Amino acid sequence: MAHRSIKSITALLLAVLVAVISPLGELKIRAYAQSDINGCSYLCESDDYRLYLNEETLALAIENKETGAYMTSAIEYDDGKNNNTWLGAMNSAVVITMINGSDDTQQADIVNDDVKKEITCNSNGFSAKLYWTKYRFGLTLEVSLTDEGLVARVPDESIVEDGNSYFIGTVSLYPYMGNSYLDSKEGYILVPDGNGALIYLNDKEGRFKSGFSGMIYGSDVGFDELNVVTLLNDRYNTIQDSEQVIAPVFGIAHTDDEIAYLAVVEEGEARASIECIPNGASVYYNRAYAKFVLRKTYTQPTSNNSTAGSLHVYEGERSHSDLGVRFIFLTGEEADYSGMANAYREYLLKRKDLKVSEDSYKTRIDFLGTERETWVLGTSAVVMTTVEDIYEIYDDLEKENVTDIFTVYKGWQQGGLYDIPITGYKADSKIGSTADLTKLIGDAQKRGIEMYLYNEARTINPDENNATFNVVKKINKRRYEEKTYRDVYENFLYLIPQRSDTLLKRFISSYTKKGVSSLCLAGITNTLFSYNYSGNNYTRYDTQSSYADTVTYVDENTKLVMEQPFAYLWKNTECFLDMPLYTSSYIYEDESVPFLSIVLKGSMPVYAEYVNFEANKQEFFLKMVETGSFPSFYITKESSSELIYTNSSDVYSSEYSSYKSTILEYNEELKALGELTKGATIKNHRIEGDLRIVTYTNGVKILINYGSSDATIDGVTVGSMSYEVYK
Q1: Is 203 found in the same domain as 128?
Q2: Paired sense of beta strands 197-200 and 187-191, if any
Q3: Which run of H or of E encompasses 346?
Q4: d(Cα 53, Cα 8) in Å, to the nearest integer?
Q5: How many domains does the chain have?
Q6: 155 and 99 inside one domain
Q7: Predicted TM-score of the model (pTM)
Q8: DSSP of 462-493, one letter per residue?
Q9: In the list 30, 260, 327, 430, which could disulfide-bond 149, CB 3.0-4.6 Å?
Q10: pLDDT in tens, 341-377
């Protein structure tokens, strides 16, 4: 048992003394500490918060000094329906799933197991060296109170595994921080699904058997088996992929107590999942946490014969990274998802992890150059938009006063859109010469048009390039193949990160020598994976580190924009392309919210996904108004029917003549909004039934009505499926 430090006891006595000697009329804050909160005793305090610790379980309570509102990491009410395993998870600071043989479901915690503890308290928290004697593994938990909240972390070097029977599979730190029982609290869980989602803390009445579970920065193809895909006519995938976890965050708000936290997984995030689980899923408690993966089990085929058997095995070597979660606490009017988003922006800016770039409005008009369809021998070019066509479209738009344009040119390279990777700056002759393309980029720049060439640096097309070497194998040493379900190119492969780096640098060298430097990077911007190469296993940490170095080089040598970049790359991009405006629409999610848009709006331009492929274009337009996003169009000069026998057969509507009027309409309305909100951030976003109220820091307020009838709020009437702007 650890002893409380003299410094902590002194702080407690001083706090009590202040409460005693202060005049009663001036007691506007609670100047004394509670002796106990949910079995946790006073430990230390910052300017705004007090930290309480249960030295048996290392459970915490954190209290706002002004309001007395608090959150705890252990349950406050036991309904008697929980077994010892669940109670251990609910009350322990650290919860581990162990690997014993091929079993990766056993739990180790601080409540149910014999754990040696060496606790050292300090002025802003404590350090606890923990060792599970039966399983012969251990780690050190460090907890520090900060001005904003607290940090819980486990240094990688502190993790030990001394036995040969039990190994650490996953580690969760304070998995029940901010938990609540059924509908005992008003509020919600912030889920990092798509742009953002909420799970309300109301009684779910046992309707859901599970909650949200998403790997930060997407799934890992190095382990994940190929899913069984539902196809139409053995060709079209009828199931849309779920949205990825773009930023390593989650949160819980108790709106009745006006206290909330935003959790940022700031160490070990590349190999962690976010778990957001409503009450009724296994137990009747709402909770959210990060689960760090140290080892995974996987299926190892025993032969090259697909019908032969396989073994269920686990990684021999655990991954290596510090593990850390920062809990940023918010109170009062800031204790909601808008406050969480603003806190995350400030966090990123403070750490220089977010590039701030000029956010003037531009309509994004991307062009497709050439594709390929199967021919008698090999393939033949399908020409969709030439250099000359782009000149004509720009001229036509200029006549209509559309001059603020942002363009990404796809399929410009020799061999067309899917002749990848791109190893040099050479245009497909079907669109014009390389000199013609260089001149177009320069002429566009003179007209104030930003034009970027598209480069998908992750993937290799084995039908067009030698893919014998430098391609990704899964951890089971089987080559990873990405199936397209298309007629021309059926499979793509992934390049190992080192090869992507080499080829990208080679391309940039030939590109910049021509005096052009604007680049749109894709593929490596929103993918992380584990892989096996030359007999060695590499983790997502290795891939992340390699991609980060590559992107930093690209950023230093080009003007760089990225397609749906993960948060660790936001410091390198001039804008965010393809922002999801929706969620995956999981059944347990109660509401979608523009969390990521609130974070980024005002810091950099944010472009929505393509308007072309949205079924409800009016609702999608309102979503852009609500989120402050700029529109994106995927345009071709020729009819999209020409693409029916190519790998771009899903581009079913793209002809410029069909979209010209929409481009003009969107440009007029959204440019006016962009001018009103330029340089401002979203201060608050509020939901009132079918209404969304968006308030900017410069005083502009936008009311959006998604309902089927008119609605009035703040004395302003908003028409059905419409919006109003006022100050």
Answers
A1: yes
A2: antiparallel
A3: helix 337-350
A4: 12
A5: 3
A6: yes
A7: 0.93
A8: TTTS--SSSB-B-TTSPBP-EE---SS--EEE
A9: 327
A10: 999 999 999 999 999 998 999 999 999 999 999 998 8
